[in-house]
């Protein structure tokens, strides 16, 4: 099961005539690059990745997403937040958890866009290792 939320601070001072060209600034809280986690349901922990980032911008952040790709660059998880960001300059938290039954390397992409179309992307790579189920043997 994956869970998500994005929360922000309200800003009502947006001036649409004052266009800015700088992309939002993303600060990834977790995961750290190279984090190792284990398959869901196994004996080892952690069995999930916590994806947590904050973002700030000179104008209003209108959209944020977290996308997770497998080794084959296929999207295995996607979360997008729109409504709560529409009046936010500073998003306090983009939060999601991801767990899987498939071991391998995963790329986590945090992407935020402001009202002027400026986009920022930050990425982290993590590795999922197979974890035997309780009582499972090699036979």
TrEMBL record:
Q: Spans of biased composition, class Polar residues? A: 1-10
Region annotation (Disordered) ranges? 1-20
Which intervals carry biased composition (Acidic residues)?
A: 11-20
**What name goes with this protein?**
Uncharacterized protein
User: Which species is the source of this protein?
Assistant: Hyunsoonleella rubra
